[in-house]
Design goal:
single chain; 428 residues; alpha/beta; Rossmann fold; seven-stranded mixed sheet; three-stranded mixed sheet; 17 helices; 45% helix; 14% strand
């Protein structure tokens, strides 16, 4: 079937080559492009995805109602995917080489079969073509601040456009509907975020007089609610943007005397705390530094204390298979990150701390709904995102990031958990 490289139906303005060098440049590799084309045809047939080429032709037969992946520039798409795998897949979306009328739908189908998209007989070649995470993203104290700034210091105004008024950037917990599925609507998001925070604070036993350490401030909502309970809070962040806004919000709520927002790496934390809470921060640490991270929790926790974590997790075998691979998410969204498995957390605790996992609760379906609400709001406010100075390549990048993440939770490839850690020799 002849490839046609003329774009149709989608126009993406020329990208800034200095800002987006790997989106502007299309790699040259005819053999790899042909392999990518053959693999996508195989995937389309096996997963019943409707891959549409320019002019309405199909890459492979597909049933009615199949999820649609629409190629606007097949030559560029296959060249990028052939050269860069999933990084190329993401960059081709940023460039406008492909699209879908239901982005989350097609990504969910792919996520359900992610481990088997490449045939087993070719999996051993992964070490030859898969990129490795660059050393400058390793989670050293110096790199960690730069990694965090790359995402969280983009603009407080940007995050305010799609988050709810609590400025909470982690999974909410919604009320269940009649079938047990979370009921998620925009007007319910504030209550759902407070429900999540309150569950964590309850899990950690936070109340009046509690000395609480929070690792990862966000924009301060958890610290606010802990202070309202009468806790004395020290909260750590590496984001100057987040620190500034969190301090403003905490002062405006009248809790500046109870909350100390510090620009501080977790490794430099001092003191003794009755409770420690950390929400979706371990994902940014990097596997080599998990012993240090959990060791800090152990070192700072007072006798009889409790640690409550909210963590995004993935299956252990997938974590092992991908831990050394440089991903599109690491390149463009969260530098230096790695999602742990529950097994990896337990192994790290046992090898490096006196802490043990005492309780866990998963709620991945709630994250899928949280991400859906964020994604819809981000799309609806695209003009305001552009007015802040973020170009169309960035907006497509964040659309893919939010949709890709939502698909991960909808497919079950990702999960989110509340984890309670206590010392193995203490019962409370």
């Amino acid at each position: 079937m002849t490839q046609v490289s003329t774009r149709t139906a989608l126009v993406v303005p020329a990208a800034d080559a200095r800002r987006w060098p790997d989106v502007v440049a299309v790699p040259h590799g005819p053999l790899r492009a042909r392999v990518a084309r053959l693999l996508l045809r195989r995937v389309a047939r096996r997963l019943a995805i409707r891959v549409e080429l320019p002019g309405g032709r199909l890459l492979a037969p597909a049933p009615a109602g199949a999820e649609v992946l629409r190629l606007h520039d097949p030559d560029a798409f296959f060249s990028r995917v052939g050269a860069g795998g999933l990084i190329g897949f993401g960059e081709s979306y940023q460039a406008g080489d492909w699209d879908s009328p239901d982005l989350v739908g097609v990504l969910t189908v792919l996520a359900r079969s992610l481990p088997s998209l490449v045939p087993a007989r070719l999996q051993h070649l992964r070490r030859w073509y898969a990129a490795r995470q660059p050393e400058e993203q390793n989670g050293t104290p110096e790199n960690a601040r730069r990694n965090i700034a790359a995402h969280y210091d983009l603009s407080n105004e940007l995050f305010a456009l799609f988050l709810d008024p609590t400025m909470t950037y982690s999974s909410a917990v919604f009320e269940p509907g009649p079938t047990g599925e979370p009921v998620a609507r925009p007007e319910l998001l504030v209550a759902a975020q407070h429900r999540k925070i309150d569950r964590l604070l309850d899990l950690a036993g936070v109340g009046a007089g509690t000395r609480l350490l929070e690792i990862g401030t966000g924009w301060g909502e958890l610290a606010l609610r802990a202070a309202a309970r009468g806790a004395d809070v020290v909260t750590l962040t590496l984001s100057t943007e987040q620190q500034a806004l969190a301090r403003q919000r905490i002062a405006a709520a009248g809790h500046a005397d109870r909350v100390d927002v510090r620009l501080c790496d977790y490794r430099a934390a001092t003191g003794e705390y009755d409770a420690i809470v950390s929400v979706e921060m371990v994902e940014a640490v990097g596997r080599a530094y998990w012993p240090a991270y959990f060791g800090v929790l152990d070192r700072l926790l007072a006798p009889g204390g409790r640690v409550a974590l909210q963590a995004i997790t993935m299956p252990h075998e997938r974590m092992l298979a991908t831990e050394a691979t440089f991903t599109w998410i690491q390149k463009y969204i969260f530098p230096g990150g790695l999602l742990p498995s529950v097994e990896a957390v337990e192994q790290t605790l046992a090898a490096h701390t006196g802490l043990r996992l005492a309780h866990r609760q998963s709620f991945g379906a709630h994250y899928a709904e949280t991400l859906r609400l964020w994604r819809e709001r981000f799309a609806a406010r695209g003009a305001e995102v552009a007015a802040l100075g973020f170009d169309q390549v960035f907006r497509r990048m964040w659309t893919l990031y939010l949709g890709y993440s939502e698909a991960g939770f909808r497919s079950g490839y990702l999960d989110v958990q509340h984890l309670l850690l206590t010392r193995q020799d203490e019962v409370r």
